[in-house]
Amino acid sequence: MDAKDRKQLARQRKEAAREAQRFHREQEKREKKSSQKSKKSKTKPPKKTESKIKEAVNSGKASKYENISREEKFLRESDEKIRNLQPQDFEDGYYIDEYSEKKRREKRAKVIRKQESEVIRRSKKPMTTRQIRIRNILISAGIVITVLVVGAVLSLTVLFKTEKIDIEGDSYYEESQIIAFSNVALQQNIFIAAWNSTPEQIVKNLTYVEDAQIGFAVPDTVTIKITNAVPTYAMKNGGEYLIISSKGRVLDTAAQNTDNLVELICNSAENLQKGEYIKFEDDSVPEILDSVAKSLEENGIDKVKGFDITNLSGIVLNYDDRISINIGLPEDIDYKLKTAFTIINEKLDPNNTGEVYGTLDVSTCNKNKVSHYKPSETLPPTTAPAATQPTTAPADDGDNGGMYDGGEGYDWGGDPDGDLYGDGDWENPVGDYDYSGDGDYIDPNAYTWEEGAYDGGYDGGDYAGE
Fold this sequence. Notes:
With 466 residues, the chain is α+β, with helices and mostly antiparallel strands. The chain has helices spanning 3-43, 52-58, 70-83, 98-117, 129-157, 175-182, 190-196, 199-205, 285-298, 333-348, 365-368, and strands at 88-90, 93-95, 164-168, 209-217, 221-228, 231-237, 240-245, 250-254, 262-265, 269-270, 279-280, 304-308, 315-319, 323-328, 358-361, 370-375, 389-390, 404-405, 409-413, 449-450, 458-459, 462-463. The strands form 6 sheets. It has an 11-stranded mixed sheet.
């Protein structure tokens, strides 16, 4: 560099120094004015619209309480230092070296940035026994939950496909008919198939199905269990018969009662269409029908021809078109039927001659243990049944502890389960009549029965022979 260039550079530095001094003098003047204003503002109430933070921002000064990083804080502070730099005397002149100061600031900022980004690793404290136990429980629970979730997903998507549909208990329909209403299909997941199945549609659409239950059998089978509706009653409806189940559902229609079902007699009924449950005047009738049907089946009672529920306080069964059994109110029906058929089979017609006609009243046997039988008056006296009777019948008024009722009929205490008939006490001093229900008499000294007790039949209510 020659002398001319050095002079030129010196003049530029001196001008820059004068400009810097001028800038700093103006800066000081502005600071003095702002300090005077701040002193005045102390006596005045602060404006509501501006806060101290806004004043600090507007004044260009960084607040010490701002939530900023170390790097940002350093950059703001260095900016303020650069603005307040004073001219210095260097070998080549007197000036402000801002360039060197900015370079140093950038270098220092990199160091601070690196320090902030570093992760400080500290040695952990050893875990307590309780913490270790809790950690192990959480890990085990997580593993179990994961296994269950994975197993459930696999079970519902990949495994347990339906390969077989097993139908049990059906006696009336093709398997395809039942499956069509079950909403079950092959290759469907067995759990989903059982969950989405529609057994109620099977019952609704297939008349002879009383109940349907759909389940599954691991690994690949869906099971459909059918409960058949058993034809139990036949009810006259115009020129045909309605075939009715024990629960009062119309199963079918027929021109004649060819299966000799129990003929149901009632006042009026609605919903007589096939597949519908009959609606009777009294809502308790379906329960009565089911109770009678179960009792007849469980006790092996047949030859019942009719069932009259016209009067619910005087229900009547027609036995073999020979004996009318008055049940009375629909309570303890099973007990009453057992009593009635024990009397018929053990007393009235033990030899099953089929020649006994009359009315058997068991309407009160569940309360007073007494049943009454009245022979039919339209039959000749000689047609009386050759039933077994005691060889030494009492000769007084014929009412031996409830056996013979003054010529009107027979009165028995009724207990088909092996208890005493009536109170079990005979007016005859021979002994107690204690029937055990199995055809044997408990007391060998009790009043016994022998063949040929009757000699000629009934004669005005008294015994005709000895």
